[in-house]
Amino acid sequence: MSVIITEIKNKVGIITLNSEKTLNSLSLEMIEELKVILENWKTSDEVACIFLQGAGEKAFCAGGDVRKLHDAIIAQRKVDASKVPQDCFDFFSKEYQVDYAIHTYPKPVIVWGHGIVMGGGIGLMVGASHRIVTEKSKLAMPEITIGLYPDVGGTCFLNKMPSAYGVYLGLTGARLDGADCKFLGLADYFIESSSKETVLNALQQVDWDGASHKTVSHILENISKEVIIPESQAELHASFIKQFEEINSLEDFRKILISHNDKDEWINNGVKSFEAGSPSSAHIIFRQLKQGKDLSLGEVFQSELNLSCQCCIHPDFAEGVRALLVDKDMSPKWHPATWEEITEEWIDSYFKELKMENETLRMEI
């Protein structure tokens, strides 16, 4: 069974991530296939527009297949723990190449962000020219809970969010629904999930000889204009988020979050993830967002590739995946275990430039 299904209908290239059992999580095989399809369709006269979706009704894409990365890291540690496993480098570098390709694609790319969209799924969605969410969309970047950080361009899209939402979401992995995504600029259209065929039929009736991005925008605006979007929980918490705008340190963030008096379910969920997450990840995320504010998109992906590979030779990423997905004991043993044990030198070590086979770690974009 192919992990990617493609079909072309009147110049609409439909790509389906086809791994319903894993909630369409991205494997290296899936990423490599996607990369080839996007490259081939970029210059093909047969394709004028791309529609990217996930198989089934549960998820567009629940992230990367981090279980396989965990296994590669454990195997590499038995040989040379200081080296980045080749499988990890290949996964992250090719994943970010696909993300970058979507961000810079010359043709309209529509993403049907229905159901669960997490981590790598957000990476595929956020760079598309036309991003659709539905009443069943559930998005999050919960990497702090597995000893990682919000990658796949998170340095860029979290920094673009209004107020201090970016740093808050990065550090708490807070869950978002479709209304939240519209408010925060992660999605362009809120469309009822029952209207998917309506969208596809409208796209397939276009005369693509004279059509463009504006044609797609017009179609989606017409279909979405009748929809009543629910209240956004993120927007309702604007005054709470505003408190984090002037923070200068992670300790400032922590104090405001923990000491906030009027905690409801939305805030409590954020506190829970933040406190249970990797202390190292919290420091990395805060620095990642601060340092990456003025980077170009290409520089963002290069810096994230280095940081992701560093996470593969630091202890917490493999340990976080072990606790969540391998042994499923939900009790990660973070190293360092507490905030007090983390030094500036330790965080510096995550941002040190890595080399692969004596060459600076780079990817082609």
Notes on the structure:
The protein has 365 residues and is an alpha/beta fold. 48% of the residues lie in helices and 12% in strands. The protein contains 17 helices and twelve strands. The strands form three sheets. The protein has a six-stranded mixed β-sheet with strand order 1-2-3-5-7-10, with helices on both faces. The protein has a four-stranded mixed β-sheet with strand order 4-6-8-9. Helix 3 (86-103) runs parallel beside helix 4 (120-126), helix 3 packs antiparallel against helix 15 and helix 6 packs antiparallel against helix 14. The longest helix is centred in the first third of the chain and has 18 residues, at 86-103. The protein starts with a strand and ends in a 5-residue tail after the last strand.
Core attributes:
four-stranded mixed beta sheet, alpha/beta, 365 residues, 12% strand, six-stranded mixed beta sheet
